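#struct-pred

JT: dropping the chains for the assembly here, can someone run the whole complex?
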Amino acid sequence: MKLISGGVCAAKGFTANGVHCGIRKNRTKRDLALIYSETPATAAAVYTTNLVKGAPLAVTKAHIADGKAQAILCNSGNANTCNADGVEIAEKMSLLAAETLGLKPEDIVIASTGVIGQPLPIEPIAAGMKPLAEGLNPDGSLTAAEGIMTTDTIVKEVAVEFEIGGKVCRIGGIAKGSGMIHPNMATMLVFITSDVAISPEMLQKALSSDIADTFNMVSVDGDTSTNDMVVVLANGRAGNQEITAEGPEFETFMKALNTVTVHLCRMIAGDGEGATKLLECHVTGACDTQNAKIVAKSVICSSLLKAAMFGADANWGRVLCAIGYSGANVDVNRVDVAFRSAKGTIPVCKDGAGIEFSEEIAKEILLEKEIEILVGCGEGPGTATAWGCDLTYDYVKINGDYRT
Amino acid sequence: MKLISGGVCAAKGFTANGVHCGIRKNRTKRDLALIYSETPATAAAVYTTNLVKGAPLAVTKAHIADGKAQAILCNSGNANTCNADGVEIAEKMSLLAAETLGLKPEDIVIASTGVIGQPLPIEPIAAGMKPLAEGLNPDGSLTAAEGIMTTDTIVKEVAVEFEIGGKVCRIGGIAKGSGMIHPNMATMLVFITSDVAISPEMLQKALSSDIADTFNMVSVDGDTSTNDMVVVLANGRAGNQEITAEGPEFETFMKALNTVTVHLCRMIAGDGEGATKLLECHVTGACDTQNAKIVAKSVICSSLLKAAMFGADANWGRVLCAIGYSGANVDVNRVDVAFRSAKGTIPVCKDGAGIEFSEEIAKEILLEKEIEILVGCGEGPGTATAWGCDLTYDYVKINGDYRT
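RK: done, full complex below.
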């Protein structure tokens, strides 16, 4: 398996595009994205667990109930959530895309991201649909990725190439997500495409299984969005024999999917609102996986630790504190903690108590852009990784006045 | 019942004092506090649920197992937590206080607050004990309250006067707490004194019942401290007939206690690290109290809402979002939201959807120092209140480099 350039157009038979249609006031920001498969594709999705759900989620869920879809239409600048006419607007979006692409509305996945509770006007989308569709092209992943960004500062795309049954296969994806990131069953907007032939059941199984260890282990601010959605389209153009059951081919697909999702997780966490650092918490030695996950996520979510990491302060007491209140079954008197980055590794706590360390070396390690927090529980085989970011002045700035 | 001036010395027979002994480097900051009852007092306490517990908590728990105590010794600047010799040091503190005051070590409540994982030297405490005890006086509540402060910016004390069986009674308290505030079964350090005569069982019952609606409904940053503790001493000097069972006298005591604790909650939340505003979320119409509490606490804990409040931005979508992911049993399509302050009330959401409102008026209301977020669930009799604060640049600043 190897990483290749590109995103949602890396797999055979996919094109994409992104334009500015006028939902966002800033004319330099694309706000409408389209991803298209030349042939019908198998579709699977997971959605937010927030009781308040964006209207597009309900529409998408109905459309892919048959396990099939052929295009994804997504706008940024407005979440189309908590609006009385939300479902109606999302259905109109489907209709516009279907008419333009010569498909049925039920073949369209609809997604929206942006402000909650402001009516989404259909006019700019209607006006932008034709140029959007006409501009579909095999190099369009980047503009599509730009079209779904809100407070994101970097474009998020990734692709991998691998073989199944002697056939060259690809999976690629784009993502947006920077604030209101604390996915539960799904995350922000992630669109993944593949040319692998796989049944709807196995595709959904692969996705549902993967997100438990990937997107559900990311947190920027503890707020689970109303519009989180991860969608995978697989059009079978790689020509492999369709995957319809577990086995080596399914394992290969799972591994490739995981490579893509972990990359996107790291990109989302590292580009958290206002973030200057990617935090990665690796837990080992927990009594089981579930408890390892609880510990990893609690550490990554601690506002106090996040602020300390912003200040490159090796305040390991905050790691212990977050483990202690996590609710995990863990013997805090056996916990070891170390910080690691490209500059080296420094152990700071052993068996739940502090050990002497050089503050200068710790500072040097923590000044890096990617910090690993290594937690050893000394109890069993449970391991887990969670991704987050530091808490900075800019997070407050961005969210102190998001709507204006 | 009326509010009176003073804190832990308001009740008859209590004196207090606070000094700088040298645990904190800054000589202008008091770092050692003592509260003393001239006669033995009934004692009750609640502690953090964090698995990582400060050594002083274990020592205090053992000392008041008999329901009695006569003095509280507390240092700031060092939490005496995650240290190999933690319990030993806390016991030495008890011994020093006992010797100086002519009491038994088992009569002393010990508490510590500050940095985790750095050994607490006993020398400054030993040196400071004599001047601390000699300075005990009936006006010492303020200096004791200063002695327990860390990143607090205001001194927190309150007292009330009421009658039980024709006898004038008083309850007063001091508190510290600004960061790492998300109590669970207890909060930061809160010391409450009373001259009411009450049995240990009924005192513990009153305290345990009260905190569920007060300190456990406060959150500054979602981090549950390792050293949270609320202690009540009641010395019976008011001369009322001892309260040994439920009834009107117990109800009066509960009401007075609640007046004190709610005041302290508001002070702790409003003085949250870096806070510019006190946030108070009132939930009504939930199906029951438990669900009302879950909703209120989720709203108050949302980083996104906290940042919006800092920016005086009426971003009610974040309130809906926080309700949606709270896990409470609530019909989001029936939720109403309004913001209220001294400048007026503005409804912003009805039945889960936005309503038109004046952004100018909303801004004026949200620029106040005390903001109420009113959530109506339209379902049942459940009500709850939670207290928090806004998320500001200063929170990041304070916690980016706490240890140096």
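JT: nice. Chain A has a mean pLDDT of 90. Chain A touches chain B through 63 residues (CB under 8 Å).
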